[in-house]
Amino acid sequence: MSKVETLTVQKSELEQSQSNWEFGMTISLSIVVLAALAVLFADWGIRRASKRLQSVQDEIIREKDSDTEFRIEQVRADAKRDAARIESEGKAKIAGLETAASDAKAAQQKVEIELNKQKTKAAEAELALLELKEQQKPRHLDEKQLEKFLPLLKQLPSQKVNMFVYTGDTEIVGITNEITLFLVNRVGWQIKVAIGNESSRSVGNILIEVDSKATPQQWSAAGMLAEALRSKKVVVNVGMRPASPTSSIFTGEIDKDAPITVTVGRMTQVEK
After folding, report:
1. Smallest Cα–Cα separation from 164: which of 206, 213, 225?
2. What do you get for the CA distance between the two ends of the chain, in Å?
3. Which of 10, 127, 170, 187 has its CA 20 to 30 A from that of 178?
4. Are 262 and 202 in contact (CB under 8 A)?
5. For the chain, how big is the Rg over CA atoms in Å?
6. Rounded mean pLDDT of the chain?
7. DSSP state string for 127-195
């Protein structure tokens, strides 16, 4: 083969090789274009998917927010309902406690009233007992009353007085001694004392009797003596001596000329 033919063949081979490489390059460029389109498409897909994802996420957030708000409202409603129930129960309990307290207070007041009644009854009973004990104590003349009339009695002339004293009672004896000591030692009167009892009458307390023939001064002395002896616990009566003597049995010395007679009987009456 000639050189020209060889070169021609070689040229033809090179042209074929170039054509192959150009084809390859064309294929490669096509692949690159397709790859670029694929990238662009993928980017578009990614962007679209991203937007959809964001939209879904936003929807999820909105749903979550809505659900949270719903739950919050539900919790608030439950809390409000529970608060109302607790308040109602609390008010009911308070009302019950107030009623119980009111009942307890009423019961306490009733007990206090009853206790006060019992205390009052006890005090009244104690007072009655003290009064009874006081009444049972031997009575005495009122010293202040005696001192009050002492100057007036001493201004009068000395009087003669017979004292008749009932027996059987220590209180009578005590008052008789007080009268005797006062009239004899303090006033200066002349006293005769006889002890016994009367069958025709029964004298209660102190009876001062004046003879029908007594002088006004002697009557005044008897009246003043009665005022001096009289007190809240000692009753003294004044009257005229009976014309006929009473039936009595007395032991002791008697002055028949004495115009004034003092009979000390049982202390059965008390002035109010």
Report:
1. 206
2. 189
3. 127
4. no
5. 70
6. 84
7. HHHHHHHHHHSPP---HHHHHHHHHHHHHSPP-EEEEEEESS-HHHHHHHHHHHHIIIIII--EEEEEE
Q: Which residues contact 43 (CB under 8 A, 6 or more apart)?
A: none
Tokens of 241: 């001596």
216-229 helix and 143-155 helix, angle to the nearest 10 degrees: 160
70, two tokens:
């719903």
In the prediction, which pLDDT does 136 show?
62
Q: Among positive and negative, which fits the CA dihedral 113, 116, 121, 122?
A: positive
Structure tokens at 205: 């307390």
Which tens digit of pLDDT belongs to each residue from 205-216? Answer: 899 999 999 999
For 147, 174, 221, 227, the CA distances from 144, given in Å and listed in that order, are 5, 18, 19, 12
DSSP letter at 138 equals: P
Residue 43: how many other CB atoms lie within 10 Å: 10
Residues 6 or more apart whose CB falls under 8 angstroms from that of 247 comprise 198, 199, 200
Ranked by mean pLDDT, the top range of 52-56, 134-138, 186-190, 227-231 is 186-190
Q: What is the pLDDT of residues 56-72, one digit of tens each?
A: 777 777 777 777 777 77
